[in-house]
Design brief:
With 398 residues, the chain is of the alpha/beta class. It contains 15 helices and twelve strands. The longest helix is centred in the C-terminal third of the chain and has 22 residues.
Length: 398
């Protein structure tokens, strides 16, 4: 007989828990797509999104997931045959390069493995060697969803500058927007891409692309196609071209509500601080469990860990057992292995801790994992929940 009769929780790194307020905002009839509320709110949505990424540049919204944002970024700025460098330390950073290759760009990877952040010195060496300026863009992920490494975006920008290279700097902040601090203009990012279903607390369906004047000038020779062209989406004074057709009305209402919650009510500094505290609580619990040797954090250095997702390595088969038990017996869905070798697919799991979260949700997920280990006789250190609770209790002092 199962105890799993209550409300389930998604503890994966996207899609995340959608707040009731956001669901209620969507629960309405379709709105007029020719005049009125949808038309009037579009500028407000774009302005609010720019506050989240800290930019005075341009913002465009697409009816797409994160892969769509990837395509929009590269198709608006690059031409067939252009060379790009992809900083790869996980499934999604590598996948962005694969997407670029399908559009016949010349893709070079700098592979840092699954447990290291991108080394700025290696990037600098590659750019210095490009004396004839063949490299047109550098692609990086801020928080790699598969490995949970967080790359140092300002340091990577500095490496490009020290090398004296003119390549566009493009950053995927799909898993970090609304979780990790992101300062697009201050950090010198030319193009940033993201999506709504992670830290932004929206249903899957919207993606965002932000770009500055340098990136916009590059698109003059690119041929993005009608749908991906960001010019009308970001700049048109007419409503219809901004959506390349019918607007996603219900998603717009959802996005307006989440931006109200994040920007106007909680404030981005507080949003980032909350995620930082929650992530430290998760790490504290895992560190205690790890004392028995059956599992460990994938990223050893806390300064290089993403604050929205934590990847955990386990003894052979242990991760799969924990995930299965939590799903079936506790109603908690944990993230699976991504990017690791196929023969290790049952040896890694991920905890998503992004978006609409509070103390009892975090402790509940950690408690479910610990209960699973007890039920399955998996060795683990004692006192993990107390360690997490102490971190959470200290949050008001931050």
């Amino acid at each position: 007989m199962s105890l799993n009769k209550g409300h389930p929780i998604m503890a994966i790194p996207g899609p995340t828990v959608v707040p009731d307020r956001v669901l209620n905002a969507m629960h309405r009839p379709s709105a007029n797509i020719y005049e009125g509320e949808l038309v009037e709110m579009t500028d407000h949505l774009l302005d609010q999104l720019k506050k989240v990424v800290r930019t005075d540049g341009y913002a465009a919204i697409y009816l797409a997931n994160g892969h769509g944002a990837w395509e929009a970024a590269i198709k608006n700025t690059l031409n067939e045959g252009d060379k790009i460098v992809v900083l790869s330390n996980g499934f999604f950073s590598h996948k962005w390069g694969e997407v670029a290759a399908t559009h016949k760009f010349d893709v070079e990877y700098i592979d840092y493995g699954m447990a290291s952040d991108a080394d700025p010195a290696r990037l600098e060496d590659v750019l210095r060697a490009d004396t004839d300026g063949q490299i047109k863009a550098v692609l990086a992920v801020q928080s790699e969803t598969s490995s949970s490494v967080r790359n140092d975006i300002p340091a990577l920008r500095a490496a490009i500058d020290v090398a004296g290279h003119d390549a566009l700097f493009m950053v995927d902040c799909i898993a970090s927007l609304g979780c990790d601090r992101f300062e697009m203009d201050a950090w010198g990012v030319d193009v940033a891409v993201s999506a709504g279903q992670k830290g932004m607390m929206n249903p899957i369906g919207l993606s965002f692309v932000f770009f500055n004047e340098k990136a916009d000038a590059a698109r003059a020779s690119a041929n993005p196609g009608q749908y991906w062209d960001w010019t009308d989406r970001a700049k048109s004074k007419s409503f219809y071209p901004r959506w390349s057709g019918s607007p996603p009305g219900h998603h717009m209402f959802a996005l307006r509500e989440t931006l109200q919650m994040m920007v106007d009510e909680e404030g981005m500094e507080a949003v980032w601080a909350r995620h930082a505290t929650i992530s430290r609580a998760v790490w504290a619990a895992v560190d205690v469990w790890a004392e028995a040797g059956a599992l460990a954090l994938n990223i050893a250095d806390p300064a290089k860990r993403a604050t929205g997702v934590t990847t955990i390595n386990t003894s052979p088969g242990v991760a799969h057992k924990i995930r299965r038990w939590c799903q079936d017996e506790a109603g908690v869905t944990l993230g699976n292995s991504l990017g690791f070798p196929l023969d290790e697919v049952e040896d890694h799991f991920r905890i998503g801790h992004m978006g609409h979260l509070n103390i009892h949700m975090v402790i509940g997920v950690l408690g479910a994992i610990e209960t699973a280990m007890i039920a399955l006789n998996i060795p683990h250190g004692a006192g993990a929940l107390s360690a997490a609770a102490r971190v959470l209790a200290a949050h008001q002092a931050v």
